[in-house]
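TA notes. Do not distribute before section.
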Amino acid sequence: MADGRRNDRHPRRAGAAEGNASGNNGQVSEEVQARTRNRWGEGERLRGEILAAASRLLSELDGEDALTIRGVARAVGIAPASIYQHFSDRAALVTGLAEHEFGRLRLAMEAAESRVPAEDSVGRVRALLHAYCRFAMDNPGHYRLMTANGASRIAPGVRPHGPTIDLIDRISAAFARCAESGVALRVPADRAGVIAFVGAHGRVALFHSSGRRPGEDAVVSFADELLSLIFA
């Protein structure tokens, strides 16, 4: 009887194990696949969270020098080692943050331009320049970081490139559309883009360095005055 009971138990165990291996195998595989699918893009998502946290911290700190790997990790809620999976060191994090901020500025300018009817080419140039000025005034620490390193050295005869050049090209393209629509310019569109960008950048720099700021409206008004000098 005892042997019979033992033999009766083991087949049930074997059957249950067999059921788990066969009957539930599809369910287990689906769960593993679901977890694998959830991991797709997690690395890039974490990188974005790291940059977003660094951006928030930069708004709260005195400057980029106070930004640390440990502080950013604490803000994200991860171990510092997790940041090193995306950025080799603090310098790489700062470089990535500058690129992130240029992306934010680019989106702000695109959004401002898109709100102006396509047929209003002059209004679109104005919207681009206003968005640039407002971003720079609203994000002083970020703007200093974005413009701190200047242009990289390049070989003679090679056209400069980088996020700042991309912004100038976008403004120049907007001036070119003005010329195509019959709006007269005092200078070629590519030079108009440089003049507008350099003028706006310089005015924003004065805004940040001035102890007694005249207010954001004065900077935006300057941008309008600058445009009036470019259009014939």
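Switch to the second chain here.
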Amino acid sequence: MAPRSLSHVMLLLGGAVAVLGSVLFFVWKAYFSDGSGRRRRPWWEAELSPYVGELDPDERQVLVLGLDGAGKSTILHCLSGHGAKERMAPTWGFNSVRLPTESFQMDLLEVGGSQNLRFYWKEFLSQADVLVFVVDSADRLRLPCARQELHMLLAEDPDLPVVVVANKQDKSEALSVAQLQQELDLQAFGQREFFLLPASIPPAGPGSSPPSIHHVWTLLLDLLSQA
């Protein structure tokens, strides 16, 4: 039987990965690598090629991390063109989205931000082309925790492009982008290049994504085209 796509396998695993983060890491490694460091062609390319011709095997991987409640799932939902929702259920394990662009397939994997899953975050970095780290700008009490987790990730891979999304800028208690830059102590990494983007995602109905998400999308396209 042909191997399933990453998103299909994740759906089958379901909530188990909320406890067994190592299983999720195994899936990420197994379905995006052939063991030699090269990325695998998706299983469906061979099966569909007689019907649709040669498919573009070029893929880019985006890893989306951040503390629970930061708004990762909402951002993924908007990036996929579905607009904002009034309520978004917490991610107990993962979310995955595959988005076609003119030049490549963009695969986004969000790993939940609960404490039991953060331990495994760093294991996913080797397969990522870009890291998106989402921060709740209004959650001042947990900013030290977000800073610590981000710094640990940055220390693991000094060359990985990083986009920090300062989410929930529409809230009255939110820190500004400049304040977040200080609170996250990004200057501690010297000349390393960061991208810190503001985001506010009020529920605006299906198919409506705010301009801030368009800016994130445009930046991802630019970074991934260089990967």
